[in-house]
Design a protein that fits this description.
The protein is an alpha+beta fold. The protein contains 16 helices and nine strands. A hairpin with a 6-residue loop joins strand 6 and strand 7. The radius of gyration is 27 Å and the shape is elongated.
C-alpha cells in the first residue's frame, strides 16, 4: 500500500509532508477530490482521526495525524536523511526550530489572521494589536537568527526549513503585506529563497504576497439557523422581536473601542516629539548649533525622561556584523514604541569585543511598562536615568545624539537612530 495523504490540495500543513517526500524520494499520493467538510466527516476518515482534522497520512501500518508528525515520519523513511542534520546537536536544533515554528510563528499568525476571517475568537481591535505585537516579537527573533544564517540549521535545507516555510506561507499569502514584512528583511529573504527551491515550488507553486490585510468578516449566524427556531403563535410578535435581536447581534460583533495607551493619558507636554524628530532628520550642517540646541530648547523634563543603556554582555560582541545586526533587531522590536520614543544606539570600538551603548528619550518619567513587557531586548541592557542637572551627563547626551567620534576615547563602528 502506498502512502496516501488525506487533505485538500492547498493546505499548508499538507505541504510539509509533500515537500519532505520530494527531498527524500518517497512516494506520497495526495487523495483526489478531497472536500473539506465532507470527506473528513465520513466514518472511514473519523477512524483515522476522530477530530476530523487534516492532514492525515494513511500508511500500511496505520494512520498518522498532526502535520509535523507526518512530516517526521516521511523524513525518517529514508535512512541517514540530511533533512535531519548530520549530528545530534543539529537534530536537536532542527526539533527546536520546528517547535518554534509551531508555537511562535503558526500560533502567533493564527491570533492575528483567524479572527479577521471569522474563525474561532471574535474579532477585537485591542486583541489584534496585542496579537500583532506578539507576532512581531517572534518574527524579530527569527529575523535576528537569519541575519547570519541562510538556513535555520547547518548549510542546507532541513525539515525545520520545510516546516517554518510552510507556516510562514499562510502569512505571506493572506495577511503579511510588503509593508509589514519589510521590517524583517532576513525573514523575507529566507522565505522567498525557500519557496523558489525546486522541491518547494513543485508542491506549492507560485507564491504571491498579500497586497492588503483582509477585511474583518462578519460572524453572524446563518439565516437558516435562525429560522430553525419554533414558530411563534402570533406572527406580529415575531416581527417585533426579530429586529432587536439582529441589532443585538451586530452590537456584540462590533469591535470594542481600542483602549488608550497609558502614555496617552499623561498631562500634555510642551515637547512635540515629531518636531524634534524632524529637526534631527533635517539638520545637515552645524548640528551642535541647530539640532542639539533645538533639542534642549524643546526638551520637557516633566513630560519626558532620558535614559542611558549599555549592553550587559559586551564580551560576546566579537563579530562586527553580528553585533550590528543585534542592534538592528533591537530597533525593529522597538517599533511598538515609535510614537513615544527616540533613540540612538552606538557600536563602539575598532577591535572586538565591541561595546554597545545607547541613549533613549521616553514619554513619561519611567521606561514604559509595555515596552519592558513586549521587547525582550530590554533586559539585556543596563538602564540608567539621565540626571540633566549633571553637566557631564548632559554633554554625554549631546555626544550620543551627534554620533561624536571618538566617543569616550574610542572610534564608532556604527551608529543607528530610532525615530
Amino acid at each position: 500500500m502506498a502512502l496516501v495523504l488525506h487533505s485538500g490540495a492547498g493546505n499548508k500543513n499538507a505541504f510539509k509532508a509533500l515537500i519532505a517526500a520530494e527531498y527524500c524520494g518517497v512516494k506520497v499520493d495526495l487523495v483526489k477530490d478531497f472536500q473539506m467538510g465532507v470527506s473528513n466527516k465520513t466514518p472511514q476518515f473519523l477512524k483515522m482521526n476522530p477530530l476530523g482534522k487534516v492532514p492525515v497520512l494513511e500508511t500500511p501500518d496505520g494512520a498518522i495525524f498532526e502535520s509535523n508528525a507526518i512530516a517526521r515520519h516521511v523524513t525518517k523513511l529514508k535512512a541517514d536523511n540530511p533533512l535531519y542534520g548530520s549530528s545530534l546537536i543539529e537534530y536537536s536544533r532542527i526539533e527546536q526550530w520546528m517547535d518554534f515554528a509551531a508555537t511562535e510563528i503558526d500560533a502567533g499568525l493564527a491570533r492575528w489572521l483567524y479572527p479577521r476571517l471569522g474563525f474561532g475568537i471574535p474579532f477585537n481591535a485591542a486583541m489584534e494589536e496585542f496579537a500583532i505585537n506578539y507576532f512581531k516579537r517572534s518574527l524579530g527573533a527569527l529575523n535576528t537568527h537569519l541575519a547570519n544564517n541562510t538556513y535555520l540549521v547547518g548549510q542546507s535545507v532541513t525539515l525545520a526549513d520545510i516546516v517554518m516555510t510552510c507556516n510562514l506561507y499562510m502569512g505571506f499569502a493572506r495577511i503579511m503585506t510588503k509593508a509589514f514584512t519589510s521590517e524583517f528583511p532576513h525573514v523575507e529573504r529566507y522565505f522567498w529563497t525557500m519557496v523558489n527551491q525546486p522541491n518547494f515550488k513543485k508542491v506549492i507553486g507560485e507564491v504571491k504576497q498579500a497586497e492588503a490585510v483582509p477585511a474583518v468578516q462578519s460572524q453572524k449566524k446563518a439565516p437558516a439557523k435562525e429560522q430553525a427556531k419554533p414558530k411563534e403563535a402570533k406572527p406580529k410578535e415575531v416581527k417585533k422581536e426579530a429586529p432587536p435581536k439582529a441589532a443585538e447581534a451586530e452590537e456584540e460583533e462590533a469591535p470594542k473601542p481600542k483602549p488608550k495607551n497609558p502614555l496617552d493619558l499623561l498631562p500634555p507636554s510642551k515637547m512635540i516629539l515629531d518636531e524634534w524628530k524632524r529637526l534631527y532628520s533635517n539638520t545637515k550642517t552645524n548640528f551642535r548649533e541647530v539640532a542639539i540646541k533645538g533639542f534642549w530648547d524643546m526638551y520637557d523634563p516633566e513630560g519626558y525622561s532620558l535614559w542611558f543603556c549599555e549592553y550587559k554582555y559586551n564580551e560576546e560582541n566579537t563579530v562586527s556584523f553580528v553585533t550590528m545586526n543585534k542592534v538592528g533587531g533591537f530597533l525593529q522590536r522597538m517599533d511598538l514604541a515609535r510614537k513615544y520614543a527616540f533613540g540612538k544606539m552606538l557600536v563602539i570600538g575598532e577591535n572586538p569585543p565591541f561595546k554597545v551603548k545607547g541613549l533613549w528619550l521616553f514619554r513619561g518619567q519611567e521606561i514604559p511598562q509595555f515596552v519592558i513587557d513586549e521587547c525582550y531586548d530590554m533586559e539585556l541592557y543596563e538602564w540608567t536615568k539621565v540626571d540633566i542637572s549633571d553637566e557631564v551627563q548632559k554633554e554625554r547626551v549631546n555626544a550620543m545624539i551627534e554620533d561624536q567620534e571618538p566617543f569616550e576615547g574610542e572610534p564608532l563602528l556604527d551608529a543607528k537612530c530610532f525615530k
